[in-house]
Design goal:
This protein is of the alpha+beta class. It is 23% helix and 28% strand.
């Protein structure tokens, strides 16, 4: 019985000594900070090396490491991977985010063509701007605008670019920038109009003024689409402009004119629309027989569909 007690006491003493050694090693390891040893587009490897004294008195080094994963964690600055940030700066009057895998320039005014100019890490460039707020029916796919953009000067707040009251309806445009990418939000300050007030119901209900507003927005949208179509189908773009009653600013090849930056500015057409005779831009046609001329070819621009 006494022997068992002595053995038990020795075991307890040994165990406590072992725990003390382990605890001391953990404290020593915790005192050494981790540091990044390797970076990539979406990861960081953190490592640290601690020393441990072995029972024979020698000292051994032990390396600890872990991998941190995060979308867009780092970006390539031309020489090395460096940490991405959400910083947005003001440079020459523009808001600029340049410390991430997606670099963005915001124009001071949201109501200009290419107000948001983004470039990806592989050099691809994307330009965009808001055309309005619209309803789209899930049943039949019909859409109509309920808010049109207007001139608006932006402001920077942290990692956010805000265009307040950017429409002829109480709503703001919010852009949120971060290492993972760019996010665009529309913040509505009041409820949108009743969807039942679709354009095809307005005349029947006697809302003549609203019918005129809707048709004006539709005509302006078609004008912008015509300018975008001109380089690819100049003949159809010219016919569209003729139907809308607006001048054609480019030649028969779809080139020339003042440039898209001014042509795509919303509301630059005449205040009163005087449309011409309506006719299909792309009439339905049968496929041509083998060896015959394709009726969808544009004679003014060989090789380009009209």
């Amino acid at each position: 019985m006494k022997r068992l007690v002595l053995v038990s006491l020795c075991f307890v003493c040994t165990t406590r000594a072992g725990f003390s050694a382990i605890a001391a090693e953990l404290v020593a390891a915790a005192a050494v900070p981790f540091a990044v040893s390797d970076r990539g587009p979406h990861h960081n490897i953190w490592t640290k090396t601690v020393q441990k004294q072995l029972p024979d008195g020698t000292v051994a080094e032990r390396t600890h490491s872990y991998t941190e994963l995060a979308t867009g964690a780092n970006y390539w600055d031309g020489n090395a991977w460096v940490p991405s940030t959400s910083e947005i700066e003001i440079i020459n009057g523009n808001a600029v985010a340049r410390h991430g895998q997606i670099q963005v320039i915001w124009s001071p005014n949201s109501n200009v063509a290419g107000a948001v100019d983004a470039q990806s890490m592989d050099g691809k460039r994307f330009q965009s701007h808001v055309l309005g707020i619209a309803y789209t029916s899930r049943q039949n796919g019909a859409s109509f605008f309920v808010a049109n953009p207007k001139d608006c000067i932006g402001e920077v707040a942290g990692n956010t670019v805000i265009y307040r009251n950017a429409f002829d309806f109480p709503a703001d445009i919010f852009y949120v920038y971060g290492p993972a990418g760019l996010e665009q939000n529309i913040v509505l300050k009041q409820a949108l109009p009743d969807p039942s007030q679709a354009p095809w119901n307005l005349k029947r209900e006697g809302a003549i003024d609203r019918v005129g507003e809707v048709l004006s927005v539709m005509a302006e949208t078609c004008r912008l689409l015509g300018h975008l179509l001109a380089p690819f189908a100049p003949g159809s773009a010219a016919r569209l402009a003729d139907q809308l009653g607006v001048p054609v600013p480019y030649d028969v090849r779809g080139v020339g004119g003042p440039g898209l930056e001014s042509l795509l500015r919303w509301g630059t057409a005449a205040d009163a629309w005087r449309t011409g005779q309506a006719e299909p831009l792309f009439p339905r046609t049968e496929l041509p027989e083998e060896g015959t001329e394709d009726p969808m070819r544009d004679a003014s621009s060989p090789g380009v569909a009209t």
